[in-house]
Protein 1
Amino acid sequence: MENTTLLFNDEIEKIIDAMDLSQEAPVEEPQRQYWFMKKARQLVKEQSEKLGRPLTANITTFGCQMNARDSEKLVGILERMGYVEVSDENADFVIYNTCTVRENANLRVYGRLGYLHSLKKKNPHMMIGLCGCMMQEPQVVEKLKKSYSFVNLIFGTHNIYKFAELVVSSLLSNRMIIDIWKDTDKIVEDLPVERKYPFKSGVNIMFGCNNFCSYCIVPYVRGRERSRNPKDIIREIERLVKDGVVEVMLLGQNVNSYGKNLEEPMTFAQLLTEIEKIEGLKRIRFMTSHPKDLSDELIEVMKNSKKICKHLHLPLQSGSSDILQKMNRRYDKEKYLNLVEKIRTAIPDISLTTDIIVGFPGETEEDFLETVDVVKKVRYDSAFTFIYSKRTGTPAAVMENQIPEDVVKDRFNRLLETVQTIGREMSARDTGKVMEVLVEEQNSQDKHLMTGRLSNNLLVHFEGDTSLIGQLCQVRLDECRGFYYMGTKVG
Ligand code: 5AD
Ligand code: SF4
């Protein structure tokens, strides 16, 4: 890992060091986990002394930004336990942080487990851990127990804070350890985190989802909505800023319902206003907004903000009011278009992106054309388009009129064509302007080029060197090539 949340992890290190292993593990969290981190450190040290080398660990993350953030937490804990992170799966401890939003995510995990089995045959000490959304599905765990008995540790989305404790159980046992919770109301703060980027970070503001869109498995695997205390969020961001972070991405399945279940309720817009005040923080992004409860207050805050990026991801899912109703989205075509109109009037230069599902049960050609119509009216900068995937246990899975594959594929291709043509035109609209980019990394294909991100989330490649990474630079956007720019640094 490239960077540490120095202050944060330093403080945690001290507390871990002070833990007394001759006493029983504390009951309180996170102290209990600190105790297990120290215990694991001892076990890892014994093994690595025997082997004459450090123990290595590797995490593969599937799915969304929530999972990416969870993986950073897992790496933070792994490193406190004495593992060294490596970039390939030839490691002593391999972890898959899984996604189950669509069926093919699951299939990829099973496929790769076959490969891991062959590695493990060569290195029998190898420990394999599986976690994330897919593990919250009982039929997945049954299948793993039956056909993938070489897996050492299985845990879910609600108890990743217990990772150190579970690793200790695994290191001390030859059996498969399984710990899955159906739901939780608990949020454990102050666990170590190892960030992937020194200058930007995801920050969870809430967990779970209460919306139950009829196609979606997320509410079943991520549980009910829980908002983090605003004080904890602010404190975390302040620390991140002290440690070099200039951009945060606030994460939640539906950020617009932030704060509803807090003891002292607070809106997402109010939270943003507080975050805006943090000195040294330059950019604020968030993900994901549900159109049904995007408030006027939020539009106003975005409009007046100096830090909130000019980008809004506003999942449409379908442009047909009939399908939207069957999806349980609680808005219709007209309401969505009115919302977009309101946003564009307030913030004309905002870039809008979306998620669209094609082939939801019962979708007719007319329904599909309504979706294309919305795409043409809204003119998204880009859109993630998905083929509907049947998720067992969701209401849509048992709906009549599942759409044949060839029909869906044809619609999908037509939609993609429309989305891409418009996306290219929209992306190019700032050609010739000088804009601010946050420099993220060296271009992997051409070492003379650096890659930065515009406020509207588009990438820009321009000549520069690695000393610029993490800095905000003014870049002239010379040429748009589809979905990115080639530019020149000015000043
Ligand atoms: N099939 C296809 N796409 C889905 N999504 C969620 N569930 C499904 C499903 N069953 C998409 C939605 C959501 C995005 C994260 O994934 O578009 O916004
Ligand atoms: Fe799934 Fe809908 Fe919740 Fe998004 S808002 S996670 S699509 S149920």
Protein 2
Amino acid sequence: MPKITVSVIKADVGSYPGHSRTHPKLLEKAAKMLKEEEGKLLIDSFVTHCGDDIELIMTHRHGVDHEKIHQLAWNVFMECTKIAKSMKLYGAGQDMLGNAFSGNVKGLGPGVAEMEFEERSSDPILIFMADKTEPGAWNFFLYKIFADPFNTAGLVIDPSMHDGFVFEVHDLIHKRRIMFKCPEEIYDMLAYIGAPSRYVIKHVFKPDGTIGASTSTQRLNLMAGRYVGKDDPVMIVRSQSGFPAVGEVVEPFTIPVLVAGWMRGSHHGPFMPVGLCDANCTRFDGPPQVICFGFQVSDGELIGPADMFDDPGFDLVRTRCNELADIIRAQGPFEPHRLSLGEMEYTTLPNVEKTLVKRWEPIPE
Ligand code: F6R
Ligand code: MG
Ligand code: MG
């Protein structure tokens, strides 16, 4: 039996009002285009959104980075862009940076997380989708899920997880990667992944190489060379029977973690887990938020979704995120609410500085 591939490809191709949420007409179009491919290119599909990003969830048997799958996603986003433009939605086509498709959507704007695996006798997956933050936002959570025994009891008491996991970390600036075997190398790994704007966890594997998690790592700013919004990442996590249990995978999201993004992609703010009905960015264009859909994969069919954060178990973290938002918002344009200067280089700030550059003069001795 050929392996199953899960592909999650996302883009912001226009929203309303402003950068707040996607329009139902775009979601309908995307869902229809994917449905037409079920039984042909795809086995199954599901379309949703988090804030202003459309998320295409697809299963198939063609492996990762498959040209036809990426072409399909590109075509869907192009068609949605047309609708967005016809309604003058805000930022219509904003993530379609490439002029023409050439085999892979990577580097063209859309974000991609994919994984190929042999389906187990029962195979639960959790798909996380975020808005108003960057790919490194997953670092903290992946560390907690796959390396922290205070989060994941199975690391201690389940023999099938006792050997730990291997993390593939990418350096987004120098385009290089490194593998860390955990728990042996957690201190080495934390030295890097604690700087999530540059170092991001791309994959997590079992020691035998079986895939456990996959994230999107595109950074639009680095690709475009100018401010084009944050990258609003996605992540796929496999669960149960040798992987962290579903409850262990969602548990770290009870911690109100500060991430980079939010207003103008230039502010730190609390990463709030929400149900789909609340996945609309409003306050200060945010706060940064994440939804999680759970599925059982059955011969490639997606049984679900279960809207995992639509649960009172996450009410307290939402309240704490709101409190944190009040506290950090009060700092207005001051760091550390505003990102550090190095990070602001990839925003619109350099344009402001250009107008002032001639007015600076040496300080007299
Ligand atoms: C953040 C985001 C928004 C915009 C902000 C200004 O990722 O997309 O916060 O940066 O609404 O948007 P413009 O410059 O288009 O008016
Ligand atoms: Mg937008
Ligand atoms: Mg977005």
